[in-house]
Write a structure and sequence with these properties.
alpha/beta, 6-stranded antiparallel β-sheet, 19 helices, 29 strands, globular
Length: 626
């Protein structure tokens, strides 16, 4: 299988990459009840998927824009007044701008990647990599092109990369399209992106500010726009709602992106484009305006990340590098907050009375951050003795949650821009809750919306699968729980001091664990690589860790993996265990170790291959794992 690193195409922060998906998976994705607009697929009477795609399939586009260069200028039949056709010339500068827009649209989203061959002749065919946002588009290219063999996929190198950045988040685009049609603007496709462009065009009468202001009032949902007006050459007008945009200006020019990491090559100073504002970019300046045209001084932010922090630094993959970044990330998150052997959040402006009047805590997040929240629940309940629930942010605002001024809502997000988490935070603020964000990005939307923010200091995380952000989120919860528990008097000073000492030792212990790479790679990972399924087992905190471990197996190896509470084995789960099934048993808690030994023996009796993870000095675990 080809190693998929979309960052080399300028696409960063992908929440999930589905590589060469099966037809079964695509069918499931296409017929999800949550799909909207042109994403919606319905099962037909013949068992196929019926998708209203507009003109996306079955015909060529009305116009083709081709870059004029040394290869194309004398070989392409260009359109002209005398001989009209669909081939229009495009400058390399315009192409670069279009490509940047596509990269921004595709970043920080779930993506489908399909590798295929165009042409049947092995000597002349072209290798093409399609990067798309919508399942039926992946289905379409899978049908239309030749599927490489498993051997060909091992070293697949594309001759062309197709960026299919077709999906924006303008939720009322259908209503806008209907309104625009009455004014003579007819959409060619059914995408909200095109409708948004038509809307701005319909409102434009020579004043970019007026058009964008009115469009902003009419549009609903999340979006980030960079707009060029033909009669305003050398200027780009930018605005956003919910979707991230960061900007900066240096002697090399003006820059805008959806993620600060993209700017690191040019600067460490930037500002977040505020909502209800317009940024005007020129080669020699960048200016922030209110919607009424007033000039505002942008609030500049600075990151201490070195440019090498966003590079692989000699490692083969970003994820590998970020795994080895963990000791430093943990040190940078823990040590500045430990003073006189006490956890101290003074620099974070988190007051001692944040839990005052709070009778329950809700933690909400997505994916890996949600797993960190599960650990946080255990710690807060065990130490502070306040009830905690952990909710998926994607479900939170739709479940009509019970929120009031006695509820503390903790949101967790690496980027600080996760749309579902932001929506949950806004709802909590509206209901009068106390809110605190645990995030990694200074000045991110969520850090500014939350009443309190605790920054992890993991540095940029480029890999899709989170590593150092997750572990810094965990230690953040430990520090929060310890600090407020000792102030509340629900833990002893002796226990507190012991835990603070262990936190300070954490970077060194992680470094020591990483020294086992060769053993893990050669003796452990090889037992997993040919498995169809793998299972994680754990109890208590270890079960929460098991859930994250199973997610990593799925994300990185594309092997089906599930985590189970070990005590639930006898309630049906054990039926899935057969000879040779890999079972990763996490048994790090002394008080639960004997029970985990019993669970390991249960699955071994059914032929499972057990991989045990335990404390360093636990000599009994090898006997239990077999």
């Amino acid at each position: 299988m080809a190693k998929i690193d979309l960052s080399k195409y300028g696409i960063t922060g992908a929440t999930e990459i589905v590589y060469n998906p099966s037809y079964e998976l695509l069918f499931e994705e296409e017929t999800k009840s949550t799909n909207e607009g042109y994403e919606v697929g319905k099962e037909s009477e013949l068992g196929a998927v019926d998708v209203m795609t507009g003109i996306y399939t079955g015909r060529s586009p009305k116009d083709k824009y081709i870059v004029v260069d040394e290869n194309s200028k004398d070989t392409v039949w260009w359109t002209s007044d005398e001989y009209k056709n669909d081939n229009h010339p495009m400058s390399e500068d315009v192409w670069a701008k279009v490509k940047d827009i596509a990269k921004a649209e595709l970043s920080n989203k779930k993506l489908f990647v399909v590798d295929a061959f165009c042409g049947a002749n092995k000597d002349t065919r072209m290798a093409v990599r399609f990067i798309v946002e919508v399942a039926w588009q992946a289905h379409f290219v899978t049908n239309m092109f030749i599927k490489p063999t498993a051997e060909e996929l091992e070293n697949f190198e594309p001759d062309f990369v197709v960026y299919n950045a077709s999906k924006a988040k303008v939720e009322n685009y259908k209503e806008l399209a209907a309104s625009l049609k009455t004014k003579g603007f007819t959409a060619i496709s059914e995408t909200d992106t095109e409708v948004a462009a038509m809307l701005i065009d319909s409102l434009y009468d020579g004043d970019p500010f007026a058009a964008l202001k009115e469009a902003d009032q009419m549009l609903e949902g999340a979006y980030g726009f960079c707009v060029m007006f033909k009669d305003h050459p050398g200027e780009i007008y930018c605005m956003r709602n919910a979707s991230p945009l960061v900007a900066s200006h240096t002697e090399d020019g003006s820059f805008i992106a959806s993620d600060m990491v993209a700017l690191l090559k040019y600067t460490k100073d930037y500002f977040v484009v505020p909502e209800e504002h317009i940024v005007v970019m020129k080669a020699d300046s960048i200016t922030l305006y209110t919607m009424d045209g007033g000039v505002e001084e942008p609030k500049m932010l600075h990151v201490d990340w070195d440019t090498t922090a966003a590079q692989k630094g000699g490692y083969d993959f970003f994820m590998q590098k970020e795994i080895y970044d963990q000791p430093e990330a943990l040190h940078n998150t823990i040590m500045p907050r430990i003073h006189n052997n006490r956890a101290d959040f003074t620099a974070d402006n988190i007051s001692d009375d944040i839990f005052k009047g709070v009778n329950r805590v809700i933690v909400t997040a997505c994916g890996t951050a949600w797993h960190a929240g599960l650990v946080g629940r255990h710690l807060i309940e065990a130490m502070i003795r306040i009830p905690v629930t952990v909710e998926l942010a994607s479900e939170f605002r739709y479940m009509n949650p019970i929120l009031d001024e006695h509820t503390l809502v903790v949101v967790i997000t690496q980027s600080g821009e996760t749309a579902d988490t932001l929506a949950a935070l806004k709802l909590a603020n509206e209901k009068g809750c106390t809110t605190i964000a645990v995030t990694n990005v200074l000045g991110s939307t969520i850090s500014r919306e939350a009443q309190h923010t605790l920054y992890t200091c993991a540095g940029p995380e480029i890999a899709v699968a989170s590593t150092k952000a997750y572990t810094t989120q965990l230690v953040s919860f430990y520090m929060i729980a310890l600090d407020f528990a000792i102030k509340k008097g629900t833990i002893t000073r002796e226990f507190y001091n012991e835990m603070i000492d262990k936190l300070k030792e954490m970077p060194e212990k992680v470094s020591k664990a990483l020294e086992q790479e060769e053993y893990i790679k050669n003796d452990v990972a090889k037992t997993l690589k040919d498995a169809n399924s793998a299972f994680y087992l754990g109890r208590g905190l270890d079960y929460n860790l098991a859930m994250e471990g199973a997610l990593k197996i799925k994300e990185i190896s594309y092997i089906h993996a599930e985590a189970f509470a070990a005590g639930e084995l006898k309630h049906g789960t054990i039926a899935l265990i057969e000879k040779g099934t890999p079972v990763i048993a996490i048994a790090t808690q002394e008080e639960l170790f004997e029970k985990m030994v019993s669970n390991m023996e249960e699955v071994r009796a059914r032929g499972a291959y057990v991989i045990a993870i335990a404390q360093e000095k636990n000599t009994e675990v090898e006997k239990a794992a077999g």
